Amino acid sequence: MAIELGVTPEHVLGCLCRLWIWADQQTIDGHGVCVTGVTLNRITCHGGFSDALKNVGWLSGDELNFTLPNFERHNGETAKTRALATKRKEKQRHANTVTGVTLKTRPEKRREDIKEKVNQKKPSSLRSPSTMITFSQWEDQVRTAGEKAISDYRPVWEYAETVGLQADWIYIAWLKFKERYTEDTNNSGKTYKDWRRAFLNAVKDNWFKLWYRGDNGFVLTTAGEMADLETRA
Could you give the percent of the chain with pLDDT greater than 70? Predict the structure, then answer.
């Protein structure tokens, strides 16, 4: 990659660290990464980096549906822990199936398991939220549930496609949205029942004034261009 990009191996390593740190917050298994190649170039701060990743087999798939091969094996501790936990559960289920052994449990324990399984059947991202929580609390819940913050939230992507907003701009809006409710002391205590719906409203109503509709479609405002530059920094 260093030869292809015309940079030092140390520079490539720095770009990869940026990519993997970002990816660890967006995906569990490295599949279905909803992002464009242009955005990956911005995240790594190097033009053509996504193409170089493909050429060496470290990135596959299509725009808005990329895969990072062997992500669970090579990424950070959080991803490894989740991957190992999944493998342990699969081995345990397989062992129970082969031996046909059913362990007796107390009635109270069985009821708890039943409730947990019922909840697991429906991802928390699709359940009707019932509690007002802060963004940080919601983000912790999403991470614990092994879900993605917005990559799988189809309403926002369908809206963007319908009105003609670029996918990269949705990502910029998400970063501004997250920044407002985590770093801004005036808003970090704000609570919502459904933070994904709140973000959809932020996109629809252009809360951050990142774009405007021109004669030939949407165009970034000065604030939008500045935000775009921030993603490359």
Answer: 73
Neighbours of 172 (CB within 10 A): 22
Query: What's the rounded Cα separation, in Å, for the pair 139 and 231?
Result: 20
Task: Kindly list the domain boundaries of the chain, sorted by start residue.
Answer: 2-74, 133-232
Predicted TM-score (pTM) of the model is: 0.50
d(CA 34, CA 27): 9
Distances (CA, A) of 37 to 19, 97, 151, 177: 12, 43, 15, 22
Q: pLDDT tier at 11 (50, 70, 90 boundaries)?
A: confident
CATH 1.10.10 fits 2-74, yes or no: yes
Which residues make Cβ contacts (< 8 Å) with residue 188, sequence separation at least 6?
134, 135, 136, 181, 182
Position 74 scores a pLDDT of 60
- Please tell me the distance from the alpha carbon of residue 50 to that of residue 20, in angstroms, as a whole number: 13
Q: Can you tell me which residue has the tokens 């970063």?
A: 175
> Which residue, among 82, 40, 81, 84, has the nearest Cα to 62 in the 3D structure?
40
pLDDT score of 33: 76
User: How far is it between the farthest Cα atoms of the chain?
Assistant: 69
